[in-house]
């Protein structure tokens, strides 16, 4: 190999020199060596006694002619030297580039041979132990391990390999690992469809990715995939590549390899599959989740018919065989498919990744009990896929992730992407993204701990720090504004000012104590979420807001036992001993974050039957969109974006992420009684509506408004009542109460009384007028004084 590299390099250098400077000149023939004249005369006198004088003169003339220089001989010029210099330079650069590519390719082949193991070594590897993963109710989430049995190609029969080649890579036996024609064909197909409709990867490329690479969609990974595909073609024969592929690829339902898929869906060895059954197995490769018989038997059968038609087009079966196969009825093994009816691939991978540290790598059968809610996991995955299918193109979003946690940090659902079969990269756990404004609650909680309140008035105006000037959405500024409204409406300038006021590192320290493990880069921009975090750690930090300030560690494994019943690991019961010092101000923060859902940027996440608090987050150029929210029972986080960081079409945290969050949490809260958020009490629907520019006297403003909660210690005034005892209205926007600035109560409408206002008042029903007037006469004294309805009156 090294000799080949050296020879290729020498050839490239010779060719470049030839092109730039031409071939060697043809030298003139050298004259025959002659003796000096004086010596010749002596020699003649000594050895040529019989020469005559005329002969001597003739000889002298010949010698004089020989001493003259020969005439120039014309040299031949090669065709490269007849080109202009600029063309020779371009041609030389092309040859040099070709040589560099050849050298790079040779180095890559040597590197892969040294670094990566022999691909055929997996033939002799021991069978993996059986790992049974259970949901929180004890039902089987999935099984991995023992069913992954390696089967040689000659024992698989011809039907499955033929079906796979026909549908996945018809030119498999004609190309050398990379199929340029197929890549160009796929490119044009995708351009015509306006989306990713057809892939151009060969079976060899897919095998290289499955064996040695991650699922990241990056240029670096794609280049490595092409190099490894060529390396596999050099190292292995075509049958060996096909054999490895069929034993490694994922067929859905937790089945890796064709043998496991055959037993999972039909309860028989792969060599006994009929033509329709083999076609169905091969058809799963395009989208295992979509065409899984467990999820959609109808779609699976339709896909099998497509594969049969492709096998006929490729010449692998006859017309009679095609007709007969299409007439047969596929019967699935319902009992085994029920064990893996939930395609929880992201959860399973996350669990398996943590088992190594627990078991120490021992090859024993395991039973793993988890915190996963099986029904919620299934619905969350469906909601993500359906939402992206319906609205992803409009927003320019291709991926999403979801994490749902209980109050102890137990993971109830974990969705790492749109489709596990398409990409196994877990975006909820591994992807680090800027959270944007979803980081602001840490800044505000630190400010509340320093003595501020939701009613503290800040200034929303342009600010410049060290040459950096943060901007608000639409570049609009409100001037004096309460902290409640600033957080609810995600005002950037106020968050930056607060971060400066509380002191450098204060918000970052709080976030780290709440469970953020990613590096947080200090600076004024930290308040706007410029440091990357994962979805799971951000949702885990928010969980402390919903449980009263107890720091939790997101976890999924509850217990691990061997097949014989020996307990290897058991999670300790949650101990409430990690309460943050700022917990006494969580009521105020929950008040403010609930306002963000009721009045602010998170309106689309509101649940109609229970209080919700949360915060949206949107990064620069709409590259990432977040919504992290919670109730008294559960916390959930949603991220939407693109793997390559491509900007979306004005997708904010209050749009698609909030909608996905609402759908997931409605499923998650089925059967759970509503409760107020920690540190809050149920407030009047329009207790602080005026702070957000909403007129509480207009009946339309209160229609279908979600539950509003406020801090329990500092009760806000209720909606104003028009009675004889009402005092004079305040002239200023704020009033002072014990050193605190709070919103003043207006005893007059916030808008001018005109004809439209009178018409609205006339059309108000008695019930609506009673609701606007204040508490009912039979309300308790405490309710009348506080201005709040009892908790049970909300539902």
Explain what you see:
The chain contains 27 helices and 16 strands. By secondary structure, the chain is α+β, with helices and mostly antiparallel strands. The strands form five sheets. The protein has a five-stranded mixed beta sheet with strand order 2-1-3-8-9, with helices on one face. Strands 5-4-12-11-10 form a five-stranded antiparallel beta sheet, sandwiched between helices. It has a two-stranded antiparallel sheet with strand order 6-7. It is globular. Residues 37-52, 714-755 and 757-795 have low confidence and may be disordered.
Q: List low-confidence stretches.
A: 37-52, 714-755, 757-795
Q: Structural class of the secondary structure composition? A: alpha+beta
Radius of gyration: 39 Å
Total of DSSP H or I helical runs spanning 4+ residues: 27
Give a count of the beta strands, DSSP E runs of length 2 or more: 16
User: Tell me, what's the shape?
Assistant: globular
Helix content range: 40-55%
Biggest β-sheet: count, sense, barrel? 5 strands, mixed
Mean pLDDT: 78
Distance between the termini: 78 Å
